[in-house]
């Protein structure tokens, strides 16, 4: 038989820990100037750039229209003329170095190249961006290759220093640090500087690291009206989710269960937001998705325990509510831990191998799963215990008993006076009540045998 663990004895210590963690998270967030709002909630430009040296240039001297493109591991040259379209595919697997690739390009009619970087550089290091496909002409088109030296690469502070002219730019490393790929975010409260900001970012970086060395991988711009609307909608949806959860649990259980669950979910959201603010993780729509996922996960854990409490109230009639709650948590503990650990394994793998927004999403989930499991045991259940204790206290006062009356005093108050028969016995003596007995319905052969 499993020994009951008295979790509720620790309730005051755990609630104190939760309060300290929440206050610390709020203080750390405020101390760093608030949340690190992403492009979704803050008007401005969000660009993903890569600083990559120029590997070689390509020119075209023919009269037809020619384009240069890179798709996957293949460089494609397409020439459109009166006679139709000629497409030349140069796989990197067959042209493994820049020397081999430029040699193959020089072999095409009217195409000429100039090798700038080390000719032994692998062709697979060619960097693509928004400018592809590029139109070829007399003016040389630059082809960039990424840095692949882990001992010699740009530090993020060098990027910040290069962009210092812009107002409070935020820079983050994307992927592997020595690949020199960065996410640059610049605020634009007025909503009319998109083109200027795009030009300034490229200009400042090229002034510091070389002409043509900046490749724009992606560019997103959000105006002030859209970001404000998105923030309002995200808050409204989160609030609506909590209200619907309250109504659902109220109907499924009781109002006390619903209030306890909402307190636990609010606790989870505050702790996770405090963590996000303290670590300055970017707050984006991905963050909202993570918070809603955490709410659903934590609610599932809480409902499992609440369902067991409700079931045990019928099975363990006469037992104190605190014992029932502790018994229910103990019975659900193995299921809760196994579920949490298996989920953590999957999310940890996502965090380890993911990049960018996926990595942040996974980190938020890791914190949320731990906090959600904790709150189901040490926040939701103690809150339910407090609610039930408060209800019992009101019932004692209503029956004319002391608020802290013991179980013996309650039974003594409910007991009949000396010499007086209990109410049920009096009812049986005063009236000759016939208790009907349930007859089993006879079917088939047994029914026919009875008739004979």
Explain what the structure shows.
The protein has about 450 residues and is of the alpha+beta class. It folds into 3 domains: about 5-40 and about 225-395, Multidrug efflux transporter AcrB transmembrane fold (Up-down Bundle); about 45-50 and about 150-220, 2-Layer Sandwich (Alpha-Beta Plaits), CATH 3.30.70; about 50-145, no CATH class. The chain contains 12 helices and 14 strands. It has helices at about 10-30, 100-105, 155-160, 195-210, 225-250, 255-280, 285-315, 320-355, 355-400, 405-415, 425-430, 445-450; strands at about 35, 45-50, 55-60, 65-70, 75-80, 85-90, 110-115, 125, 135, 140-145, 170-175, 180-185, 215-220, 280-285. The two termini are about 55 Å apart. The model is unreliable at about 415-445 (pLDDT under 50).
Properties at a glance:
alpha+beta, Multidrug efflux transporter AcrB transmembrane fold, Alpha-Beta Plaits, 3 domains, four-stranded antiparallel sheet, 12 helices, elongated
